Amino acid sequence: VTGEEQFRLAPRLMQPADELNRAIEAADHIYVACHRDPDGDAIGSLLAFVGVLRAAGKAVTGACEDPVPEMYQFLPGSSSISPAPPADEDLIISLDVGSPDRLGVLYEPGLFGAVRLVNIDHHITNTGFGDINIVDAEAAATSEILYLLFQYLGYPILPDIATCLATGIVTDTRSFRTSNTTPRALQVAAALIELGAPLTDIALQVYEHKPVAALYLLGEVLQAMRALDGIIWSEVTQGMMRRSGARPEHASSIINLLNSTRDADIAVLFFEGANGTVDVGFRSKPGVNVADIAVTLGGGGHPQASGCQLAGPLPEVREKVLHTVRSMLGRPAAAGA
Length: 337
Ligand SMILES: [Mn+2]
Hints:
This protein is an alpha/beta fold. It has helices spanning 3-6, 14-26, 40-55, 109-114, 142-153, 159-172, 183-194, 199-207, 212-223, 238-244, 248-252, 254-258, 290-296, 314-329; strands spanning 29-34, 59-63, 91-95, 116-121, 132-135, 226-228, 231-236, 266-272, 277-284, 300-302, 305-311.
């Protein structure tokens, strides 16, 4: 195929895209939601879709269980996001969500079962839970799919929308470094910059605008780090959060730093939640699939970035997860580890 042909919505997604278009036209009030503990792609795709629907004159509610992280509050429309489950809306659009539990408190099976549900996502573990499914695991980001979808459906992409979508692609590719950074992802990013997305400013806001508390937290997490048999891991405890004054969003990027050593091909970070649950994040080098590991533990994600949530306490979760990782990768623990 030529470059031109790659740079559009996958043909198999055109029929569900047409169906989505009809559902939007028929809807009076649309509910758009992204996953809990949102990243740049979740927030970027959410704000972009809300913005596009508003510009088309639709009544829209944008929702996420957690507040928009400080690092994404520069995005246009970020103050309008609600933590409330759907109420009187007659169409639900779920973004960047592999399975409904990732919606957290927003997911109310009764409410979700009563109206049309649209599932737009790029996780390879996506369960196809929508009435309309627009899932493309080859996309680097849900934001990439939305650009192609808006182009296909003829929605104008104004500079504010382009900024939100570009942020989703920059963050989900970790600045165009992950294996899903395809020519198409780069073409979409280039198109978004041409449409007015300020790439340098996005990078500054996302990567170089942390409070110093985030660096104090990083210091503690690196102190707690361990590495053995190609596996590196560490943890973020509630005590570390208190002492550093950092916020949960500052913990989520640390796992990428753990994954930066050549001495490990899998990185694991345990985050002790205030409610006693433990969020486990996985990263890996190309060739090591952590999506399978996360699915085994009840979670999901991408081949090189995934996660799951388990009931605490943290030391027991750590034992269970490291045991699962070792047995799935065929790396029995060394004596005394
Ligand atoms: Mn994503």
